[in-house]
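Morning!

As promised:
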Amino acid sequence: MISKADREQFAFLAFHVFFRYSTKPIVAVTSALAGDGKGYVGAGLARALAMSGRSTVLIEVSGNSETAMTTLQTYSVNSSFDSMRMDERIVADARETRHALREINARFDVLVIVIEDLFTTSMNLELLSVSSCVVISIAMGRRADHADLRLRDFLVALEKPIAGVVPTLKSAQSVSLPALTKTTPLGTSRAMPTMIAALANSGT
Amino acid sequence: MDVEIWRRAFRRYGWISATAGLIGLIFALLMSRKGGTYFAESQVLLVNPSAGQFQAVNDTAHLSVRTEDLPALAESTSVVSYLAHAIHFNGKLSALRPRIRVRLAEGSSIMPITFSAADEREAIAGANALADALTSYDRKVTTSRFDRLVDDLQSQIRRSGRTLADLDQRLASITAEHPLLGGTKDGGASLTSRIVDLEAKRDDADALLQGDQEVANGLAALIHSTRPLANEELSDSDQVYSQLKAQYAADAAHLAFIQKQYSGRYPGLPELLNQQRKEIAQLNRRRTNAVSRSPLFSKTYAGIYTQRAAADAKVASDQAIITAYNERLHEQRQQLLSSTGESTGLAELRREHDAEDAAYAQLASRLTSAIADRSEAASLGSIAVIDRADSASRATWSTSKLIGLAGFLCALFIGLGIGYLLEAYRNNLDAPEKIIKLYGAPVYATVGK
């Protein structure tokens, strides 16, 4: 599924990220619109960073605006870089999420946080604020949206550097794989485990 | 212009250019099927008819049509209809107009006329027909103003002639009914002329009367002044008076002598004076008796009296003559008044006839002049054909093909232009440059296929 070119692309991206933010960076991966491939980018970036010798954890953040609870699903890349496994699922309220992230960051060299629906919950914004830099994924070929401008202006206002923008093509936006995900009682999104499994299955 | 945009535009919207090019190509093919066109040219000369010499085009004082109107005239309905008839064209006249071209050059008297057609013979016939049409139209315009004048004058003359005929008929009927009014065949004077004659005679008689009246008045005055003389003659004709007068004269002389001789001391003087007084009284008495007789006993007076009587008789005679004339005039006038309507109407009719006759003569003169002017104008024209078309040239590459090629190229460029505009204003993020421009951040990787 992931071509050699994509792996090289992610390695190139990881090099630049780590070159500029080398001290335990927390890289937030987000996008202006849904379906722009931020999960794919997050997974690929995490794998590339892990291959560079850094202990890397990928965190998928899902916020529930009704309950104000945040689910942090953490994934780690195995030593052969052929798969990712979910290590922990942390459900925390807004107050504890930051604390949880600090603890995770203490254990790992690099945190890659994939944030969905950035402006829906304040926790997402909070996570963004603790990030060192932001990587934005964007579906190649779609029309520029006011959400893009809003995201850009927001990041400028937060003074959050954009490490890079990753245009994603069709195959990165939707992945058709055998169902490898695990359902959880909390209804964690299925996309991330599927992509991670696809990354693992693609091999080096 | 960004080459990259052109490249993307061609890649994305090349179908628009291809479609436009295809439409242009179809148009070009349709135009090319029109075939070649023949052009034939004839030339006309603008002439100044009054000067009889060639006139420059820009000096239009004597032309019947303004030079700036000639191109429009060449495309007018009348000229194009003539052309259509000449070349046996049955379509719409508007289809012929684009094939006509008239050129005017400054300072030139020659005006070329070009006609195009698909057939060579038709082009030649059309060019010649246009030249002929312009020439005949010019003549028509030139003579048209005279035609209207001639028609108008002819209608007026016809009306005048009918009026004259009517007047003649009425005059003839009146004179036939009243010969005296109109004159007879035996040469007798008309009533009116008779009245005039009588009036003239009456005037002569009146003048004569006045003269005789003056003579009579003079004689009457003379008689009055002659009375003392007549009295003297009457007195002198009385013998007793004469003797008394002689006696008195002698006694008066004697008395005068005595008075002178004796200056009043003569003793018989009172008696003489008394005697003289008695003689004077007797003389006066006798004189009174003498002059109491009719003065006609005086020869002088009788003579003058006789003259005066003759003068009075003359006057009376003149008056009688005048009275006779007046009576005769009255009689004639009464006779004239008895036919008043006819005589007055006759005079009016005659006057009307004379006036109408004069008007008829004037109209005839004007008509003659108008006909002469029209003939002169028709013989001289402002536009003359000097060069008739006898061959037609063909364009090396017909206009229709050129139009077709131009249409194809225009369509192609329009298609490319539309594609460029669509691409230039397309805000899809389909290039890393656009993404970099949007976010202001570098693009290190592009993933997915």
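Residues 175-191 of chain A have pLDDT under 50 and may be disordered.

Hope this helps with the figure draft.
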